[in-house]
Amino acid sequence: MRGFSFRADAFGELMSTNAPFPPAHPTAPGLHAQLLSAMDQDLIWIQAHWLAIAVATCAGVALYLLLDLFRRWGLSLCRRGDGVATWYSIAGRAIARTSHVFMVLAAARLVIGYVDAPPLLHDTVVKLFTIAWVFQAAIWVREMALGAVEHRTRDEHHNRQSLASALGIIRLLVTIVVFAIAVVLVLSNVGVNVTGLVAGLGVGGIAIGLAAQGIFADLFAALAILFDRPFRVGDSISYDKGAGSGTVEAIGLKSTRIRGAAGEERILANKRLLDFEILNTTRRLHNRFKYDFHIGYATPPEVIERLPALLREAVESQGYRLIHGGLNGFGDSGLSYDVEFESTDADFPENARDLVAAAIIARFRDAEISFAYPTQVNLLADKTKPTPPASLPREGAASQARPAS
Question: Would you say residue 392 has pLDDT above 60?
Fold first, then answer.
């Protein structure tokens, strides 16, 4: 009871004197006092470590100048390499995107790590440098990735407009992914619990991927075409085991457009097109053609022995290389032969087959070799009336002829 009366008396005295309650949070004068105290500590620290601070500041300035020189070197690589012509120019473009904020904070981080700074100043500089470093690394990664894509597509002059739209979407996707990772890293370094954020991003990414599965499949197939280059715009290709063929006119994010031999435009999804076996006839080194023919069975053996030499002479007289020319079997109407020859360039001239055929026929005429053609021989019997079958023996005679058991 005495303690209770004491507390009541103290409370009454406090209320009678109208004394204010202590504030729950620091007021403006309190913050001002804390700032003055921090400034006093900084002044004391500077006075105690002025020599180390001066040396570290000189080192920081030297680091800033070195980074700035490195950035200027990247700019010179960009000008020399015409943007994305070489990997050196791609690296130079990424280096040229180094920001002055990062260079200043890198120099400050060097200074603050060399001297014994107050905890508040040290923690502030370290956190700012971490944020700048993460975002600067994200910029470097983005520039290298986009430079690699542009480097692989720099020769696609026929489809520059569609490639520009494709690169715009790729740039947007790469930027979103890279900077989303950078934001998560920054939040994690400043002490924020990013577990829920990462889980939410993962679930959202899975949902978007399932909803747009076909679109992303064709998008990645377009990237595979741009990077692997199985064909380019202007190439003549055949696909689906020769069921389709034509000239590539455009390579888009979703589909590839092919102009058929009859003038029609065929539009195929990129993923479906890559599932086929693709024959690129534009990139072949040479072409081959093959003739099949027959000569009669009445051809003399000595002429048959000379025939391979005649075929070689006829093919080589037109400037082509003989692959095979000779007998390959016995046919219904004569001896079966083939002659296969190869072009010296990617394809034959339009009249190449006619010239080779004319040379073969000319040499066959000189050697009096005639081609066989399908013939049919009909054998006629002497009697027009068919012979009846032999009469069967009678049952009694058959039983007499059967041996006894």
Answer: no
Question: Could you tell me the CA-to-CA distances from 288 to 245, 317, 324 in Å, in that order?
Answer: 18, 16, 11
Contact 181, 135 (CB under 8 A): no
* Cβ atoms 98, 117 nearer than 8 A: no
User: Where along the chain do its domains lie?
Assistant: 43-211, 230-283, 288-366
Q: What is the pLDDT of residues 293-311, one digit of tens each?
A: 999 888 888 988 999 999 9
**What is the model's pTM?**
0.51
Strand runs labelled E in 270-364: 279-280, 288-295, 321-330, 335-342
- What CATH number should be reported for the domain whose range is 288-366? 3.30.70.100
pLDDT digit string, tens, across residues 183-218: 888 888 777 787 877 787 778 778 877 777 777 788
Please report, for residues 11, 146, 153, 223, 229, the alpha-carbon distance to residue 158 in angstroms, rounded to integers and kept in the order given: 90, 20, 11, 17, 14
Same fold, 230-283 and 288-366: no
Q: Please classify residue 158 by burial: count the beta carbons closer than 10 Å to its beta carbon, then call 0-12 exposed, 13-18 middle and 19+ buried.
A: middle
Indicate the angle between helix axes 213-228 and 160-189, nearest 10 degrees.
Answer: 110
d(C-alpha 128, C-alpha 94), whole Å: 22
Alpha carbon distance 294, 327 (integer Å): 9
Residue of 230, 232, 266, 231 whose CA lies nearest to 246 = 266
Q: Which CATH architecture has domain 230-283?
A: Roll (2.30)
Identity of the residue numbered 9: D
Q: Is 223 exposed, middle or buried (0-12, 13-18, 19+ CB in 10 A)?
A: middle
